[in-house]
Amino acid sequence: MKNKLNALRQKMREQKLSGFLVPHTDEHQSEYTPSYAKRIAWLTGFKGSAGLVAVTLSSAAIFVDGRYTLQVRDQVDMKVYQQMKLYEDKVEDWLYDNLKEGDVVGFDPWLHDKASLKRVEKKLSSKGIILKAVERNPIDEVWDDRPSPSIAEVKAHDVRFAGETSSAKRKRIALNLKELGADALVITSLDSIAWLFNIRGTDVECTPLVLSFAILYQSGKADLFLDPKKLTDDVSKHLGKSVSCYAKDEFVDALSALGKKKKSVMVDPKRAHKAIFDFLSDDEAEIIEVEDPCQLDKACKNQVELDGTRAAHVRDAAAVCRFLRWLDENGVSGKYDELDAVKKLYEYREEVPLFRGNSFDTISGAGSNGAIVHYNVKEAKPKKIEKNMLYLVDSGGQYLDGTTDITRTVVIGDPTEEQRDNFTRVLKGHIALAQARFPKGRTGAHLDTLARKSLWDVGLDYDHGTGHGVGCYLGVHEGPQSISPLGHSVALQAGMILSNEPGYYKTGEYGIRIENLVIVRNSDFRGQERPMHTFETITLVPIDTRLVNAHMMNVAEITWLNIYHAKVREKTAPLLSGKDREWLMKATESITSL
User: Fold this and answer.
1) How far apart are alpha carbons 222 and 197 in whole angstroms?
2) Mean of the pLDDT values across residues 538-547?
3) Gap between the Cα atoms of 251 and 337, Å rounded
């Protein structure tokens, strides 16, 4: 890895740079970075899903969050790189301390947003250090075996799954442009493009996206920029005459053309990187900074999407039940490890109709590894699943009609009383959120405490959000909706899909998380004086009642759990047979506090 760093520094000298920033992202801010954009992994060996590297001619630092404190030390030469905390240490402070007046720090404008760069520039300028955009990324200049972007064919997403034509979506979003006085909308987020044009692809791991940019005009017509090799006659026909397709490298010229014509252009500052703004502003476009309107529209699913995702969850539940039955039979043997479990679960999902792959890398945590919230067994030595431990599995599938995400914590053998108590507290929080009825206009931040109260009562908590948005055969992590202390910017609306996943993690011992997906629905009950919402739970897999201390639960909570299990049995049992069906019947038996 040191040779790669030396090669980068030589290229930096040629470009007259004293420092360079390497973010963990691509030009679209994809959650899963495509192989051609994994610059940190190539340079340092670090394979985590978040990070930042800063390099000077004589020093280097890698910034990672708490998930990767140990992993980074295993994968990166810590004699060469200084380890920093991603959300606590500031890269501008590190650069300030390691550079002198007159030094120049380079950055790739296609990989950084304006806000973060403004913060860095403010700090560095106080010492006379210059922050400069580079025309050619120096890493790309020395990365000899850099993979090429995917040229996999684009697939049309049939309206029987999408529920609405691309033309209708474009016309509706175009009305938003008209209301704001914009001539065009620049779209850089791949999930927005996939949703707006009803297309899907295989360019990004775990998410059916197509590497592309787009510009939507007030007329409802649009330009789509992607590798022409990806287009087929069927997709061109699907897109229609109102969509013009161009090579991806023509996107810059299109931005400049908008500027030269002094058009009013909508751009999302949270999703578009600095290069977009530079090309528009250099040619005097009027930039309107607003959130990409596709995001909220996409989040509120239509009836076809909701019916499809309900159906996908039933089929997915059958696969997960088959896996949990296998785990119950084989977990105590000590013959299988965390990776064996991942493979077995995938085998069951592969048999499900309309399955197109995992929606994210399965988190398979045995014992103490379950306490690592985003544990990745592929990056660790798989641990054996053994008797008298808790096992946490967080997984999901991509189906043509929906995206699933489910976490179950199960006991292998016998649990301790502490484990049962803490599991029950997590379950009580899960039920409190699932049963919530709340006024229209409330955000996820208003609901987050419902899931935490039972843990707070005894001084416990968890450090992740309680719920994230989920797409429909799109991203398993979707905005703008969320349920978390920070989820206060967007009101929850009917048709949104979110996760309900409180947890508890005892470092070095075990982890607990119970996750179902829910749909926000309008509520209409006798006596209500204002519009209200409720949640519909659509995940249909048993919750391990062996871990439940029923004496800690009230009648309403026990009733909810029994009704939930009755629904699981009703919906999922018809897809199971033999031992799998027998296991389900036993796993969904009613419980009582007596």
Assistant:
1) 9
2) 98
3) 48
Does residue 569 fall inside a structural domain?
Answer: no
Residue 341 lies in a domain: yes
pLDDT in tens, 301-337: 999 999 999 999 999 999 999 999 999 999 999 999 9
202 lies in a domain?
yes
DSSP letter string, 496-527 = -EEEE--EEEETTTEEEE-BEEEEEEEE--TT
Q: How far apart are CA 422 and CA 409, in angstroms?
A: 12
Which of 53-62, 73-82, 268-277, 352-361 comes out lowest in average pLDDT? 73-82
Same domain, 92 and 212: no
The reported pTM is 0.93
Measure the CA–CA gap between 473 and 404, rounded to whole angstroms.
9
How far is the C-alpha of 45 from the C-alpha of 275, rounded, in Å?
A: 28
Could you give the residue ranges of the DSSP H alpha helices within 270-331? 274-282, 293-299, 303-330
What are the CA-CA distances from residue 207 to residues 31, 49, 201 (Å)? 9, 15, 8
Distance CA 423, CA 418 (A): 8
Confidence of residue 594 (pLDDT cuts 50, 70, 90): low
pLDDT at 440: 95
Domain that holds residue 41: 2-142
